[in-house]
Amino acid sequence: MIDLRIRGGTVVTMDGERRVLDADVYVDGARVVAVGGAQRRTRRTLDASGMIVIPGLIDLHDHLRDLTPGVRVGEGLKIDAFLRAHWRLNEHMGPDEYRVGALVGTAKLLRSGVTSVVDHIYPFHRPGLAEAAIAGYEATGIRWFMARGIMTRPYRPICEPAADAFRAIERLIDVVPPGRLFVAPVSSRQAPPSVFARARRFADRHGLGLYTHVAETEAEVRTTRDRHGARPVQLLHRLGFAGPDTILVHCVYLSGREIAQLARSGTHVVHCPTNHMRLAKGVTEVPRLLEAGINVGLGVDTMDDLFAEMRQEVLLQSLGTMDPGAVTPATALEMATRGGADALGLGDDLGSIEPGKLADIVCVDVATPHLQPVLDPVWTIVNRAHGDDVAHVVVDGRIVVRNGKLSSVDERDLTNEVGEVAAAYLRRAGIDA
After folding, report:
1. Global pTM?
2. Ramachandran angles phi, psi of 401, nearest 5°
3. Could you tell me the residue range of the domain that residue 396 belongs to?
4. Are 125 and 44 part of one and the same domain?
5. Are 133 and 119 in contact (CB under 8 A)?
6. N or C: which terminal CB in the chain sees fewer CB atoms within 10 Å?
7. Tens digits of per-residue pLDDT, 271-329?
8. CA–CA separation, 428 vs 410, rounded Å?
């Protein structure tokens, strides 16, 4: 007898043929065993009637330590000034904040259809922060990846010596599940080239991925060129940091030569459109990257949810190129599913709903007036749906959200704990929220 039947939905498979089927999905253990076909006996049934069933969404870039949404510190500032303001707050964070941030952050993501997330986590200014974050991830049932940040400058109370960072990452190798740990210098503004070169050697030695922010501001490009005689992405290639095991976040300011280098090296790119708009970073030229054959995924980056990011990707590229068809809804959904899976090296396991793949599945309830009529399921998902429309979420064959509620976390208790921890944190930081 098979474990689970997801019954009655319209399945956007994202398979090789991009089929959309009115079909049941059958799951046994952690994997999909059938989409459609003869009815099978199952132990459990998840009712997806009136729903669109999609692959689990993949958030390739987030900072789950964020416990200060709405605090005016840094509001209206551009990225570097914004970061300096928030580092002063981060100094007051400890293990409780890192655990609760990871817990509420992953809970929010699961509730909105994200089944996999990469948390770019830093700073590490106190003991036990990584372990606390892992406890938070594990509590919700999300598939989590840790991009362990290395920040050696510029704000002394919360930066760390590079040697300490690499020793800490080495200890994490036995704690983080295989394939889920990235060595992640924060950016060229927070770590020198020697750290990036050392990160490549370390990652190769231990079989880890690489990850960083890059080409995020025009000032970064100017400074890198003045100091090192190369643009940021050119420098990463020179250092050996780029490659098919590397994820680069933002990539706003790229030359044609850098785009060609990314394509040749097989490096992956993440765009975070809402964050780019909020902090006035600029528009990553996603259509050019895709045309060059570069894999591009999406990141929430402390904003709302991946439904919003898919929609913003379509809209922002339309405005940036003055071409309403620059990024289609189908392309945006592909970035949030298959693009994310490929970046994580899991294209054979995630990103689509088809037999043999891991059962990361999201059921979106479209039987509501604001989503009707549904003429094109992909168009509706990208242009109209929200995280609040998610009814059920399955990760690795386990039901982690049912009827809009988390299965493994008491949401009322979590809400109370987040409020208490955030209030205490802000009091220590001297912030009147």
Report:
1. 0.97
2. -135, 125
3. 2-56+358-406
4. no
5. yes
6. N
7. 999 999 999 999 999 999 999 999 999 999 999 999 999 999 999 999 999 999 999 99
8. 27
Q: Which amino acid is at 188?
A: S
* Exposure letters 230-248 (e unless 16+ CB within 10 A, then b): bbbbbbbbbbbbbbebbbb
Q: Give the pLDDT of residue 60.
A: 98
**Per DSSP, what are the bridge partners of residue 250?**
214
Task: Verify that 49 and 192 share a domain, yes or no.
Answer: no
Tokens of 55: 């692959």
Is 223 in the same domain as 184?
A: yes
- CB contact at 8 A, 224 and 188: yes
Question: Does 281 share its domain with 317?
Answer: yes
Q: Which ranges of the chain have pLDDT less than 50? A: none
**Partners of 185 in beta bridges:** 150
The confidence score (pLDDT) of residue 157 equals 81
Helix (H) or strand (E) holding 150: strand 143-150
Amino acid type, 130: A
* pLDDT at res. 430: 84
What pLDDT, on the 0 to 100 scale, is given for residue 433?
A: 59
Instruction: Give one DSSP letter per residue of 299-314, joined into a string.
Output: --TTSS-HHHHHHHHH
